[in-house]
Prior knowledge:
By secondary structure, the protein is mainly alpha-helical. Helix content is 68%, strand content 4%. It starts with 18 loop residues before the first helix and ends in an 11-residue tail after the last helix.
Amino acid sequence: MVTLEAPAPDASGPAAPTPDEFVAAQASPEYANLRRTLRRFVFPMTAFFLIWYAVYVLLGAFAHDFMGTPVWGNINIGLILGLAQFVTTFGITFAYVRFANRDLDPQAQQIRDNFTAGVYRSGQEVAR
């Protein structure tokens, strides 16, 4: 059986949070807001990309003539849309990094600060 105990504080920094502190943090309004903010980005972006990918696959499966339409030399619409999948992936990654830096990281830092200040130790909320 494994027991989860916070190590004793030493000169290297504060003690690790206990499981009870994590439960208290998860129940906090700050954590709920962080999850809501994350979902506000992730769910719509996931739906967008899955629909975009499904359209690409369906076009490839059922619209051979359209996908094979030459655009320039041996470059056709299917190749351009396939490469656009990669561009879209990098674009989504770039957008997520900006979103995380701007919206998620400050909220996560507030939760970390609350752990450091011992706000979740006894379950009390931070005074605002």
